[in-house]
């Protein structure tokens, strides 16, 4: 039984359906959208014909115009020695270090092994240079970053890398990576280079920990000694000033007392020269009056008396001390 030829209506419907599908595909390829953090580069038959910013834009369909979108405002990063793994179902991210030992193991200037993990942050300033100046800008950045970090760490002592030189290493690495990427005209701008972990190898980590603890203890004792020094020296200086002031005051007192004694002696000498006997008797009586009260009870026996009389009783009778 022969098939009946298709009617003109069915053929027209099929052509219309194909035309609609073809037109839908064409219309769909006429427009493209660029996100706020992106920048688009348009090529027509392999030649760059323009760039476009965020929004909805028109292009020629069927592969005549091709659009490559580059995140120009977003801060990108490359991780070395570890990888960040997003958490499941919106959970917190985790760090994976297994399998990246070759990236983080380095040799320092004093021939010690050390493990350095770091992050290079960057953004894309020129999308055209980023896409077409280098065959693979991301790979070039990665190789330059690893080479620069190994060279910088290799020029320093392990103790510096582990303790005080981390900021200097980050700054030096950023400058060196940026210089290399500028030399390649890559269109990449390097942001801060951050050292994540700087650790000795696993097998010798306990020994390094003991050394660091000893250094910290030394620093603590040095700071404590400096604190005691800063407390003791001002105190000693203050004590010295107090003693000097007391000595000066004592010296002035002794000098003034001596001057007073000299003046008194000169006055007595003058009186003595005028009336030696009277002055001698007066001096004797003054000395007895000064000494006698300190001697306690004194019994004085005079010749011709039947019984002794007390010194004070005699004073009352005679009006003075004989």
Q: Helicity, in percent? A: 40-55%
Provide the structure class. alpha+beta
The gyration radius over C-alpha positions equals 53 Å
Largest sheet: 4 strands, antiparallel
Number of strands: 13
* Averaged pLDDT: 82
Amount of beta strand: 15-25%
User: Which residue ranges are poorly predicted, with pLDDT under 50 across at least 5 consecutive positions?
Assistant: 308-322
Shape: rod-shaped
Report the span from N to C terminus.
Answer: 182 Å
How are helices and strands ordered from N to C?
Answer: HEEEEEEEEHEEHHHHEHHEEH
> How many separate helices?
9
What's the helix and strand layout?
Elements: H1 8-30, E1 31-34, E2 39-44, E3 47-52, E4 55-58, E5 65-70, E6 76-80, E7 83-85, E8 94-96, H2 101-104, E9 105-107, E10 113-124, H3 127-132, H4 137-154, H5 158-162, H6 166-183, E11 188-199, H7 205-274, H8 276-291, E12 299-300, E13 309-310, H9 311-318
How would you characterize this protein structure?
- There is one protein chain.
- The protein is α+β, with helices and mostly antiparallel strands and about 325 residues long.
- The chain has 9 helices and 13 strands.
- It has helices at about 10-30, 100-105, 125-130, 135-155, 160, 165-185, 205-275, 275-290, 310-320, and strands spanning about 30-35, 40-45, 45-50, 55-60, 65-70, 75-80, 85, 95, 105, 115-125, 190-200, 300, 310.
- The strands form 5 sheets. Strands 6, 9, 10 and 11 form a 4-stranded antiparallel sheet that branches. It has a 3-stranded antiparallel sheet with strand order 3-2-5, with no helix packed on it.
- A hairpin with an 8-residue loop joins strand 12 and strand 13 (about 310).
- The model is unreliable at about 310-320 (pLDDT under 50).
């Amino acid at each position: 039984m022969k098939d009946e030829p298709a009617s003109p209506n069915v053929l027209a419907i099929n052509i219309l359906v194909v035309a609609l599908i073809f037109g839908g595909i064409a219309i769909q390829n006429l427009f493209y959208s660029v996100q706020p953090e992106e920048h688009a580069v348009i090529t027509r038959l392999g030649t760059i014909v323009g760039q476009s910013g965020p929004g909805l834009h028109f292009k020629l369909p069927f592969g005549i115009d091709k659009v490559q979108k580059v995140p120009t405002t977003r801060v990108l990063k490359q991780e070395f020695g570890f990888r960040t793994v997003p958490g499941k179902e919106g959970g917190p991210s985790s760090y994976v270090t297994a399998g990246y030992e070759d990236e983080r193991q380095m040799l320092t200037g004093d021939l010690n092994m050390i493990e350095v993990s770091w992050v290079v942050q960057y953004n894309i300033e020129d999308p055209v240079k980023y896409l077409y100046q280098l065959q693979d800008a991301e790979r070039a950045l990665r190789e330059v970053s690893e080479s620069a970090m190994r060279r910088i760490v290799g020029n320093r002592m392990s103790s510096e890398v582990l303790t005080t030189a981390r900021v200097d290493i980050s700054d030096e690495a950023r400058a060196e990576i940026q210089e290399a990427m500028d030399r390649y005209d890559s269109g990449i701008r390097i942001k801060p280079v951050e050292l994540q972990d700087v650790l000795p190898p696993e097998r010798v980590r306990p020994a390094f920990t003991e050394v660091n603890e000893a250094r910290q203890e030394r620093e603590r004792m040095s700071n404590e000694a400096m604190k005691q020094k800063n407390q003791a020296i001002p105190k000693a200086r203050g004590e010295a000033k107090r003693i000097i002031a007391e000595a000066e005051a004592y010296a002035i007192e002794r000098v003034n007392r001596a001057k007073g004694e000299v003046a008194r002696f000169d006055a007595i000498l003058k009186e003595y020269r005028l009336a030696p006997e009277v002055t001698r008797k007066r001096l004797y009586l003054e000395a007895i009056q000064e000494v006698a009260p300190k001697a306690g009870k004194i019994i004085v026996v005079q010749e011709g008396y039947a019984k002794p009389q007390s010194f004070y009783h005699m004073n009352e009778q005679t009006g003075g001390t004989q």
